[in-house]
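Usage

Read records sequentially. Each one opens with the input sequence:
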Amino acid sequence: MNNQGIRVGLVGAGHNTRVRHIPGFRALPGVDLVAVANRTRESGERVAREFGIARVYENWRDVVGAADVDAVCIGTWPYMHREITLAALERGKHVLCEARMAMNAAEGRQMLEASRRAPGLVAQLVPAPHTLEVDSTIQQLVAEGYVGEVLAVELQAAQGRFVDREAPLHWRQDASLSGFNILNMGIWYEAMMRWLGPADRVMAMTKVAVPRRRDAQGAWREVRVADHVDILAQLRSGAVGHLRFSAVTALAPASEVWIFGSDGTVRLEVDARRLSGARRGETALREIPIPPERRVGWRVEEEFVNAIRGREKVSRTTFADGVLYMEFTEAVARSAATGQAVDVAGL
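and closes with the structure output:
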């Protein structure tokens, strides 16, 4: 089993699949990319020519049903994730699904239950990539008491540009394709859960900067996905979080995270992948070195293949963790819509 050949079929071959997943799989011994289905046959053929994939299908169901496909990599938008995942697991295929997990928490739970009915199959979600190099160090600092009791976390993630009112509707702004997902909120919450655990309760306010945009066909569409969201969160640990995600805060400071504890403070500068901190008695932050061996970074495809071969278990990211971030995403949306604090469901 440790050296078994693995044949992968691709459903959806957008940017992340071409830049991350295909090169990641091709770099692994004994892994072959045997089939692809993209949004159109023409785009699928372009991908097949570029990467030497043998077969192109017009329908994703043909990839999932192919006898020589052992595992399916799902690179579509969230509105298709549940349907493809359920079909693949039912046909005995391992699944690597792009983030975000699904349109909403109910779909995520259906995916989790389907994976539990097939314990012999690997079901993995593509993890939030932006903190992979620092995650283990932050986890270690918190676990070993560097900050003492975690009291508060401040997270600011800005995309740093002015509003373009003439830009067409992006799929991430289309609730029929992206569901409750808002900006990069989901991937940040996933990362924060790794360090501090999940939230129990949220209060959120959102802003849609441009209420209507034209879609790809030129028709006017209502925009229901926020361009800015502010969240107050009560973490299960007792800490309080203030999270801001925005596509309208032009010229704002770079994205960063502050973890404040009873005995110490940790700061993450996201773009620089740099940590700094100070403990009680110190008067200034100093850089916290991260040894090269701890800066693990992106190894999604390797982890997926190793899990299939029985060499390791999936940690980045499980379907259970995906359900937790979908519950958070949905609670934020409900709080913003009602103006009330909303409980975040657990597993």
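Summary fields computed downstream for this record:
- The longest helix spans residues 319-338.
- The CA atoms of residues 103 and 179 lie 4 Å apart.
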